[in-house]
Amino acid sequence: MKDEIVIAEAMNQEVRIHAARSTDTVKAMQEAFDSSATCTAALGRVLTVTGLMASDLKRDEEHVRVRIRGNGPIGTVIAEGDGAGNVRGTADNMNLYASREDGHLDVGRIVGNSGTLQVAKDMGLREPFTGTVELASGEIGEDFARYFAVSEQTPSVVSVGVLVGTDSSVLAAGGMIAQLLPGASEETISALEKLAGTMRPMSEYMKEGYSAEELVKHLFSDAEILAKKPLRWHCGCSKEGFQRALLTLKKEDLRDMIEEDGGAEIVCRYCGNKYLFSKDDLEEILKTKTDVEHKKRND
Ligand SMILES: [Zn+2]
Question: Do 222 and 257 sit in the same domain of this protein?
Answer without folding.
Answer: no
